[in-house]
What we know:
The structure holds 3 protein chains of 3 kinds.
Chain A: H1 9-18, H2 23-36, E1 43-46, H3 48-63, E2 74-78, H4 105-112, E3 116-121, H5 155-162, E4 168-173, H6 179-185, E5 188-191, E6 211-216, H7 219-229, H8 247-250, E7 259-263, H9 273-288, E8 292-296, H10 304-319, H11 338-349, H12 352-365, H13 371-391, E9 397-401, H14 417-421, H15 428-433, E10 437-445, E11 448-455, H16 461-474, H17 482-487
Parallel strand pairs in A: 2-3, 7-8, 7-9
Antiparallel strand pairs in A: 1-3, 4-6, 5-6, 5-10, 9-11, 10-11
Helix pairs in contact in A: 2-3, 5-6, 7-16, 10-12, 10-13
Chain B: E1 2-13, H1 52-64, E2 76-79, E3 89-92, E4 102-107, E5 113-125, E6 129-135, E7 138-142, E8 149-155, H2 162-178, E9 191-201, E10 211-216, H3 219-239, H4 260-265
Chain C: H1 5-14, H2 21-39, H3 73-76, E1 83-84, E2 87-91
Amino acid sequence: MSSLTKNTLAGLREILTRGDASSVEITQDYLAEISARRDLNTFITVTQDDALASAKVADQIRAAGQASLTTGLPIAHKDLFCTKGILTSCGSKMLSNFISPYDAEVVSKFKNAGFVMLGKLNMDEFAMGSSNETSYFGPVKNPWSPTHVPGGSSGGSAAAVAARLTPLATATDTGGSIRQPAAFTGTSGLKPTYGRVSRFGMIAFASSLDQGGLIAQTAEDLAIGMQIISGHDNKDSTSALIEVPNYESLLNDSIRGLTIGLPEEFFDSRLDTRMQSQIEEVIRIFTSLGANTVSVSLTHVAEAIPAYYVIAPAEASSNLSRFDGVRFGYRAEKPIDLTDLYERSRGEGFGSEVKRRILIGTYALSEGYFDAYYKKAQQIRRLIKQDFDRAFSLCDLLLSPTTPSTAFALGEKSDDPVAMYLEDIYTIATNLAGLPGGSFQAGLIDELPAGYQLTGPAFSESKILNAAHKVQQATDWHTHYPEEIRNV
Amino acid sequence: MYESVIGLEVHVQLSTLSKIFSGSSTSFGASPNTQASLIDLGMPGVLPTPNAKVFEMAVKFGLAIEAKIGKTSVFDRKNYFYPDLPKGYQITQLDAPIVGLGHVNITLEDGTTKRINITRAHLEEDAGKSLHNSFDGLTGIDLNRAGTPLLEIVSEPELRSAKEAVAYLRVIHSIIRYLDISDGNMAEGSMRCDCNVSIRTQGSKILGTRTEIKKQSTLKLTARSIQLKMASKLFKKRGCMTLIKMRRAPCGPRKRPTTTATFLIQIYCQSS
Amino acid sequence: MSLSGADIQCVAKLARLRLTEAETTSTLSQLNSILTMIDSMQAVITEGVAPLAHPLELTQVLRIDEVTEENAREAYQKTAPAIKDGLYLVPRVLE
């Protein structure tokens, strides 16, 4: 790891502004690191030549005195965001040959802000998974331990930031896919409110749950990134017409008097005792900073998992129907008729977790089952949203563990889908209610990272980042990275 | 006495400049796939952007037929696989259409007017076109038409003859032309008619088994098709052949037939 | 609610997924355990609760009716597996 790549995004911004290093130098160092850590399998595509070319342009712009604060900073994108002229695979064989003809809005925004793209990050296939073991391009390893998963589906994004292969990574979260891998890899991750970030060009898994977000080392870095990606987009009519605050300027607000709700359902006897003590440490820090806590209840939160595992697969089964071998993507060889074309292209192009979810989703939407499954799940969804609304009348933010325990071993849960789904227990309700949630570092348990989660009312990202930033100013958990631990 | 029961579903292509969910042109006759944007092609990651004009046009039509206008209008996905349906689903309206119950008046041959109720009218997107010309046993798909806005107008099954059906279609045509929401050109496909026909004992409230006649491209063809379909249904009814896919009651007991010629001319026949 | 191998094949047909014998067998037990988990929803009382389709209560933003797309057929068809004369080719469709 070079001295440059150890930096946070804010740190690199300083360095570029002061002229202590050029964008080309920074980019070269990151590319070298990425190359040295191929064992982690975090990148599907490294855009080496394009990155160096953009970095060169960034330096020229800076030399001409026309650089913005973000010109020349590095970024890597989860391979679910369409990138024009570059492979966009979604971690799937189905799109293993798909060169996107256009850029996602998030990608365009970073480009326009002068960021240099390092490449496309590995992920669970079509964002379906909690371990990054379902990728067609092989699993991602957790930089903290090569035999453990980094979490998913944004495993590549989280592992790359943890291993300091990029200071900032885009990611997506449908049931916890930003927060859980952030917790497993000792990084900070934010899933914004549904509608805060444009989904145009973000390959759809479950349209009413998906949201694009970020993974970085610190809340401050997330604030810098959020400023770039937030806002209404005409091309995504579900994106909110709500003003974007200045996230960075709100980071240092005092949190004296902030009321933090502790959902009693998340702190019951099932919580691992060591995870509990880490979370209690976080609570102590909050109270020392002047916040107070209150117990709240999310009555229906246990039903979030079954409701989610009806809604998400149902929406996914519809969204994935476009992958049929006709206009793009994998096409089976020598189809004998149309049905064969469809069945074999999809049967061969999709992995087993994706097929499983398509089957569940199709079943839940089929005639005779719609009311019992899909409609019922939507009703539970409303009850869950009401629970959160009630809780937020009593507090400003909710605090909980992000995951039941630290990262599990590779292969440990891959044969038991239900066990895998239960990993999402703390994160999933937030997606059903469309609320913002972040995961932040909470120390280590047996040398593996733990994370705590902050959930807020709609469009309260600035409050979440502010609270997390204050904790990061009072602790050093966010400064730890795997190499440092291993070298001790 | 049997009577024919005819309901019509008219698909009207709305004459907007751009498609219902994308900014592609809707003009007729362009070279294949030159008016198919990323959204029309159902590319990964794209999202629909609804066109304000289509709602205006639908509401105009609703007001013209004195219908209830849906204050909340919901779009649904009808999922099925077909190559001219790029997303694998059609965006349409199921339970909450933009236009509710309305009516038109048609003038019968004897000069009297008859009220025909319209169950609903809803917005949806059109599919592309399949071309079966010789492509060595393959079919060519043109998605220029995919995403063109359609207003589907569904009548109650209150039409009783091919002539009434034609009269109804003429009224619909004149409304959409007068409102300037469509050019109503059947030959070009901007007005298409699907007919649902069945027969039942006169006076009965139960509907017989329905047969669909799809995509008639002229009024004359529509009338002819309805007549032929009615005749074949009546013939089957008399012969009491088992009808396939029975969702409603099967045909009644055997009756003495009248002549075939009578059937073709009038659509009523003797029975009890 | 328990599915049989035949049920899986039926749903797979609806979803246009070709499953091998082995896949059908392994999927069967996994799907049934997922369905058991999902069935726990039935214990929740939802009488009179309106389904929530979308987390935000927003009014749909509408677009002005104008042509904003240009012909980009060549660029878009670069990703296509089978093209002739600008048309996407599929095995013969019988109507």
